[in-house]
Every structure is written in structure tokens, then in C-alpha cells.
Amino acid sequence: MTSIRKREWTTPAGTAKSAWQVDYRDQAGARRSKQFARKKDAEAWLTTAAYQVTQGTHTPDSQSITVAKAAEFWKTRGEREGLEPSTLAAYDQHIRLHIAPLCGDRKLSQLTKPIVEGYRDQLVDTLSRPMASRVLRSLTAIISEAQRRGYVAQNVAQGVRVARAKRERAKVAIPSKIELRALLKAASEASEPMAHPLALVAIFGGLRASELRGLPWPAIDLKGATLTVSQRADLNGTIGAPKSAAGYRTIPLPPSAISALRAWKLQCRASEDDLVFPSIAAKVMSNRYMTLNILGPVLKAAGLVDPAGTDAKGQAMTVARYGLHDLRHAAASLWIEQRVSPKRVQGWMGHSSIQVTFDTYGHLFDQAEQDASVASAIERDLLQ
């Protein structure tokens, strides 16, 4: 049974006070009450609460926790699940710099979808859209964890999104075939013997930098000409599982890559993890060293650098035009050009969903379709 009644009392200091109290029962049948300064606020709240009780989504304030407390539970679960340090650091930044100042002291039971939509607008106004989207996803995950623990009955942030306009999506940087040929030629002539097999595996295998750094010799089938991704190295050099379940995959390699790997295996220094591309200390190579000291000189020798001003001595400086991730994009573009199906490209790239593949390379698939249409049209004209 629900009711709204006016409550009056006198404080110890002798001041007369009054409030409108809502008495109701939650979905478990427990008696609850909540006070408001105005009757119309009490009536409005009761209307919403009564509906939530019938839907089983109501959480009394007394059983709820603040967003800040829920964020602590979320971070603790991430640590327990063994998330990478870089991921945990990013989550902590989202909480400290954005979520806590925005709504850390508000109870989860007091959140509504319109309120979260308001938070979304504030984030978009103060942050870049990609960052606003990441922070909002963290807030949604925080509420989901609280829901899992029973501190709130529904996730009102579910479905609140920061739409990113297509025109804002930066096109991936994909080296041309001429640039790739120059890169491979420079790699084959480099004084560092690791450079050539590394470039070939990066271009034809499409591995992430973390997967290249954590790649073990047993993952390469020199007879079958395939490479299997089953582990990766995080920023701290710790070997672990791939980025997601989709990260486990087997990729075909061309004869040139297999030949270079055979030759490199004879020279490769032994390492504790039996790595294909170990550091000088026979450990996991850092991302920075692989990018600057192995790939960097190759890009410079191939002429794939751009002017970057001058240093303190007035000497001209350059910056590499491409990085390891751009070679991953190159692999995808080469597969798509050879009419490899989108589903297979998704599998070889290790994408968690086909949508990620289309969002990143959709324009390349469109071009491939157009090219095929042009070729078919020419053929029809000739045959007719």
C-alpha cells in the first residue's frame, strides 16, 4: 500500500519543520519511505517508483551505493580478471578525471536515463567525441558491475551513446604498393637481420605490435606456411592471452616470409620465451624499441619519412610516415584487393565482430566491388 502524507516536527533548536513523506512497499514486499520538501515532487517520484516496483527495477536509496563506490568495485573486478595495466590505468583516468567529478557522489538509485543523457551531453561539450564515448562506456560498465552485485536493479546508462559522425572518423593510413616494395627492399638490405622477417610478417600477417612482440617460434609452421596467434606481450613485456577470443587465429604466409623466417631462425638469439623477435637482452622487446630502432631505420632508408622541422642545432628532422599498425592495415588492404571475403578478413585480423572490420575497411570493400563491376562491364562489352 502506498501513501503520501505530510510530516511535521520540531527540531531540538525549536524550529518547526515539515516534509512530505512517501510510504510504499518495494518489489520484495519490504516497507520503504522517502521524504520530499514539496508534495508535487513526492507525487512525481511515487509515480515513477510505483512503475519500477511493478517492473522489478526499483532500488531503494538505502540499498544503493554511490557511483564512486561502484567505480571502486568495477576497478577491483578488472584487477581480479587480470586486465592489462594499460587498460586499468585508462579506466582509472576515466574515473578520476571525468566520472567522479561529474557524478561520483550521486547514488545509483537516483540515476535516470534523462540524467545520464545529460551527463553524456556534458562529456561531449568538454571532451573530444572519441574520449567522451570511452568515458560513457566506462560509466555504463560501472553500473553493470553494481547491477551484478545487486546494488541497483537496472542499468539506466544502457543504450546511451555518443554517435560519431562518419566525417569525423579518421581514415586509416595505408601504405601504397610502391611504398611497401620500397620498405621491403630497404628491410632486406638493412644491417639488422631481424628487420626483413619482421617487415614481412607485419605486412603479410597483419599482426598487432603486441602480437609481434610476443610471437613464439612454435607458433610458426614453416612447412605449412602458416602463423598462429595464441599470445601477445603487454606494454610491460608480460606474455599473456590475445586481446580477445577472436585474437586466436591462424594466418597463411607467402613463400617470401617463410624463406626469410627460416634464415632468421638460424641467427635469432635464444630467449626464455622462445621469441621470434626478442630484444638484445633476449627478452620481450619494447614497443618503442621495435618501432624506432628496428622499423625506423628501414622507413628512413626507404624514403618513407616526412619533414618535422629542425632541432636545436638547426638540423633537419624527420618523422616516420608509417608505424607498425599501418602495416597491419596494409595486410588487410592486400587481402581485400585479392577478393578475400569480409568474414575471412575479420578472422585473419582478429576482429571481435564483422562490424569492426566494416567500420575500418568498409571503403576498401566498396572499392573492390566497384573494381569488379568495372572489369565485368569491360568483359561484357568485349564479348558482345
From TrEMBL:
Annotated keywords: DNA integration, DNA recombination, DNA-binding
* Protein known as: Site-specific integrase
Q: Which residues form the Tyr recombinase domain?
A: 169-376
Return any one Pfam family short name: Phage_integrase
The organism's taxonomic lineage, starting at the top: Bacteria, Pseudomonadati, Pseudomonadota, Alphaproteobacteria, Sphingomonadales
Q: Keyword DNA-binding: yes or no? A: yes
Q: Which organism is it from?
A: Sphingomonas qomolangmaensis
Family of this protein:
Belongs to the 'phage' integrase family.
Is 4Fe-4S one of the keywords?
no
- Which residues are in the Core-binding (CB) domain? 65-147
**According to the lineage, what is the superkingdom?**
Bacteria
